[in-house]
Amino acid sequence: MRVVAKKLGQWYRKNARDLPWRRTRDPYAIWISEIMLQQTQVKTVIPYFERWMRAFPTVEALARAPLQAVLKQWEGLGYYRRVRNAQAAAVQIVERHGGQFPTTFAEVLALPGVGRYTAGAICSVAFHQPTPILDGNVIRVLSRLFGIEGNPRDKSVNKKLWSLAEALVSVPGVEPSQLNQALMELGALICLPRLAKCAECPVKGRCLALAANRVEELPALRARAPARQRRFIAFLVRRRGKFLVRPRPPEGVNAGLWEFPNLEVPLKTKDLAALARPFGMAATDPILQVRHAITNSRILLEVFQATLPMPVQPPCVWKTAAEAKRLPFTSAHRKVLEVVAN
Asked: Which of the residues 160, 249, 271, 284 has the least number of beta carbons within 10 Å of its own beta carbon?
């Protein structure tokens, strides 16, 4: 453990990428970066993080911001429950901690939307506490380095990996911030899921998977279920320079975001124009198709030109292109707006 920890720290100090959240010890900024990085690539997160910190530079700014403004800053990152939890956590920090980010692992873990990994990352990076982390990258590094058999999602295997992560970050003389970030960085740059760059690894001489020629076999993750194919029909209604749009319900998927009137249909549905009738619309020509992927779903969104001969029914409202662009739209419908509003 001591040798591995020392080598990882040395490697990280020489090879760490210059990322905006690594230029600060502000726990708020580190927290925001961590929740943005969940399920999202670093290159995607960087501009979002920089815009977010300009819009909401402090916990207090996030806590008092209108939800629509918060969702707009997050627009396109997906997994919107993350950002709703973030604002709820900011409110909790203001109300229970006087606006000061909590400094103990237990208090950080108690924040809405913060799990063991995120709390460990914040406490180690911001407060130099020896708190372990375990995300996809770290799981891969530890599984290979220590030759861990079994599916990391299984309870017993996962427990073993957490124990290894804790032992590494607790090595005397090790800087917890550097050790944890080294594990993440190694998984992101060197210990890749496929075609790992083992020759460049600082701990290759200690890696049991490499010694046994089993790097590609570990971690032993089960194959994911095939992606589900889904089909949606949306209706584009224009009147006097305005579009008909509606907000998503306040609960459920994409809560609070905006979209064009739409519905999900069976994949083999043929009479698409008839689908507009329950909306009181008359659909005419198809305009465009948008393909979109989320988690384990592959979505085809087909957009039809439509007319509305009757008065608008809530929650639908009329918005100009400029007004619509200021609203937080779901990713697929934002793509539609970008096409039709130009």
From this structure: 271
- Which of 133, 143, 146, 144 shows the shortest CA–CA distance to 182? 133
DSSP sequence for 19-53: -GGGG---HHHHHHHHHHHTTS-HHHHHHHHHHHH
User: For residue 273, is pLDDT > 80?
Assistant: no
Helix (H) or strand (E) holding 263: strand 262-265
SS3 of residue 302 by DSSP:
strand
Give the C-alpha separation, 3 to 121, whole Å. Answer: 22
Residue with tokens 């890749």: 192
- The DSSP annotation for 234-289 comes to EEEEEETTEEEEEEPPSSSTTTT-EE-SEEEE-TT----GGGGGGGT-EEEEEEEE
What topology does CATH give the domain 228-340?
A: Nucleoside Triphosphate Pyrophosphohydrolase (3.90.79)
Confidence of residue 326 (pLDDT cuts 50, 70, 90): very high
Give residue limits of the domains in the chain: 2-217, 228-340
Strand partners, 318: 244
Determine how many CB atoms are found less than 10 A away from the CB of residue 203: 21
- Tokens standing for 245? 């749009």
According to DSSP, the β-strands at 228-239 and 297-307 are parallel
Does the fold of domain 228-340 match that of domain 2-217? no
Structure tokens at 301: 């969104």
Q: So which residues are the catalytic ones?
A: 34
Token pair for 256: 């609070």
Tokens of 19: 């990322």
> For residue 208, what pLDDT is reported?
98
d(CA 11, CA 97): 37
Among 309, 306, 310, 311, which residue's Cα sits nearest to residue 260? 306
Is the bond preceding 278 in cis, omega lying within 30 degrees of 0?
A: no
Q: How far apart are CA 153 and CA 143, in angstroms?
A: 12
**Do 168 and 1 touch, CB atoms closer than 8 A?**
yes
Are the beta carbons of 92 and 112 closer than 8 angstroms? Answer: yes
pLDDT in tens, 150-169: 999 999 999 999 999 999 99
